[in-house]
Amino acid sequence: MKIVDGHCDALTKLYQQTKLDFNQDVLELDVSFPKLQKAGVKVQFFAIYLSESIPNPSFDHILQMIDIFHQKVTSHPQMRFIQSASDWLAIEQTEEIGAVLTLEGMDALAGNFTYLHILYHLGVRCAGVTWNYANWAADGIMEQRKGGFTKKGKLMLKEIESMGIIVDVSHLSVAGFWELVELYKKPFIASHSNAYHLCPHPRNLSDDQIKTIIQCKGLMGITFVPYFLDNAKSTVQISSILKHIDHICALGGESHVGFGSDFDGIEQWVKDLRHVGDYGNIIEALCKNYTESQVEAFLYGNWRNFMLRNLPK
Ligand SMILES: [Zn+2]
């Protein structure tokens, strides 16, 4: 069964630990070519995330991470950079694995829309406005003042709407979310967030937010961060992931839910989900509870449909 994973931080590790080899099945990398191949992942999203350990992140750092993406990830003969719907359709005819390039937080763009355009030209196709804290565009979800977008941030939303970069609301503040709903008229995603109703962590989305994503024909990627799944338990099981899927389906989201693991961005893991190669354990659990076509949609079809509609042709 084919899989799409809508979020990982492997690029950050490859950037910080220069000896790591994406082509080797090493313990340090949750996402590597051998693990993607083992699991049957057909498309993996790779986030450009400038870790908090980089002081004063600049556009130059983003470019360095894009360089790493090409040197270490797309250089594999069986990996293909996906920038358009036709790229996606093309890999379905081959054994290749697709790689989508995304940006997690616009801090390093420093309000420069030319940088945003350059990222589009370089193939970035999804972008989160913030990480957890405030930047020039908006407040992140952990920012104490709980603000929304700045004036410049609102202008940015108009700019990005015309460009073909999909906006990602994971990490955005609640006020920012609702301002975005008013201002941004295209479908958007939450690449790695879960249901607040089941796990009241600020990074998760309320039922009203989830219903809004469904209404806009967007997509929500269930993430495997244990404390976003069940913050009452020290050991979180795959069954917790199924509860979030059940909940989103109950809100009408059966065609709008997929996965966004956050592998390589986490230091705790769900039991039996230590790395991307373990997706088979989710498939097994899903197949006990859902029909084959539902399981196919959660793992692949929903992300595929969304991306084919929203990527450049
Ligand atoms: Zn994140």
From TrEMBL:
This is Membrane dipeptidase. It is an enzyme of class 3 (hydrolase). The keyword Protein transport does not apply. Keywords: Dipeptidase, Hydrolase, Protease. One of its GO terms (molecular function) is dipeptidase activity. PANTHER family: DIPEPTIDASE (PTHR10443:SF12), MICROSOMAL DIPEPTIDASE (PTHR10443). Its EC number is 3.4.13.19. It comes from Paenibacillus qinlingensis. The keyword Hydrolase applies. It comes from the Bacteria.
